[in-house]
Every structure is written in structure tokens, then in C-alpha cells.
């Protein structure tokens, strides 16, 4: 009996000790997104007010110019440079995520002459990623294909404001020379449209990000090959295709070959014309196209 009583007391002591240890352990508390959006915007605007980009090189390109945006501080020998905030190439795009409105800053030095991507397309991009302190966390001087549905929303929302090149030449050594009219610029992203509280390699939590980008080519994506371009499967028009799931089967429509889950593939409930345009029949005239209506099937 005494042993049992001692055992109970020991367990109680351990429990209390554990609780005390837990109470002393600092708990992570994520910052409020709306408050962080304000702080990030202030930090970004300060950067834009105290930095310039190499606009003079774009105005008179040297022979070996790579058409890449570079930022530097306005001070000393550069004290007379025009701040990015005062550039007529700078635009501010409002983007709402998680009920918070963010300012996304886009320096569109050259829009481009080719095709403009939609929010779910694939893009061929060269880039350099930087923090506001000008430290580089990633870069690729060779163009890389990016599926915009797999990137941070700030990058995707920014790159759609550019266009690719109007064409290219394949050289005898199989390298590609792009027409010199591809999109060039920079995207300055608040942390809420980036990684927010999740630190990445060389990117601390709550870091605004800068991507200097060149956009060369765009491919319209149809991830599930159902005949409907992926960007058209953003049914609520919020710029996010991952949250549109008509049949609630955990597969968003853009990767679901049977969007309404009625057993008839989406491709069989639409009409694809010879010119590539798509029609959406509504057999029962209830305002919902067949491919989204589980009550209309074959």
C-alpha cells in the first residue's frame, strides 16, 4: 500500500515538474498578419525611398549589358540618383490574402512584347532573390521554368504583370537567343505574400523579398489535361486556384479531371472547338455548366 502511495506521489511530482518545465519554455506566437503587413509596407517604402535602380544602363545600354535590374543605395557618389519610389516604372498592386490587403510593388522597367502569363501558367524566368539589406538568397542567370501554382503568391501576382519575348532563335549549338524585348523588372514582396513566419535558408521569418526578374516565355497550363486552362478553374476569381474544389474531394478543380465528381470526365462535359476555344454546355439550364453540375451527367 505504501509503495502504491509513493508511486502515485512520484507520478504527481513528475507531472507538476513537467508542467513547470513547459510553463518556462518560450511559446512561439505568430504575428498578426494585418499588423505585419503595415510594418512590411513601411520597410519596403523606406527601401524604395533610399535606393535607385540602374535606370541609366537601360536608357543607354552598354554593349555587354545583361538587362538585369540592380539596386543600390542613394548616397555618396550616387546621392543625385532618382529613388525607385519616384520612378514612373513603379506600380503598386493590391493583393488580398487571408482577409488582409497587401501592397505588392512591381518595378516594370520593360513590360515585354510577347504573351502575358495567367496566375496558373508556367513561366521561363531568370531571377535574383534579395532581402531589403541587399543580401542575395537565391539566383539563376539561366532561365528556369516555374509553375506559378507552386510559388509564393507574391511572385506569381507580380510576374503576371510582365510579358515574355516576342520570339527567339535557336543557334547552331542549340543555345537560344531571345528577341531583346522580354519583360524586365523587379517584384518587391511583403512577407505575407512570401514565407511570412516560416524561415527559409538565408531568409529570416517576416522578411520582405525582392526578385529581379527577366521573363522570356509563357506556356498556358492545363494541369489535369481536362481541356480547361488552369487559370479558368479559379472560379471565385481570387487569384488562387488551390481553393476551388467543386466536388469537395480535396483535389482542386485545376488538378481534378472530373470537377463535379459525377463520374463523367470534365473533358466529356465541355465542347472544345477546332480553334481551341471552349464552350460550357448547361443541359438543364439551371445556370451551372454541366462540368460543374453533379446532377447533369452521361
Automatic annotation (TrEMBL):
Residues 120-219 form the PPIase FKBP-type domain. Keywords: Isomerase, Rotamase. It catalyses: [protein]-peptidylproline (omega=180) = [protein]-peptidylproline (omega=0). GO terms for molecular function: peptidyl-prolyl cis-trans isomerase activity. The keyword Isomerase applies. Residues 237-298 are annotated as: Disordered. The keyword Cell inner membrane does not apply. Its EC number is 5.2.1.8. Pfam families: FKBP_C. Belongs to the FKBP-type PPIase family. This is Peptidyl-prolyl cis-trans isomerase. It comes from Salegentibacter chungangensis. The lineage of its organism: Bacteria, Pseudomonadati, Bacteroidota, Flavobacteriia, Flavobacteriales.
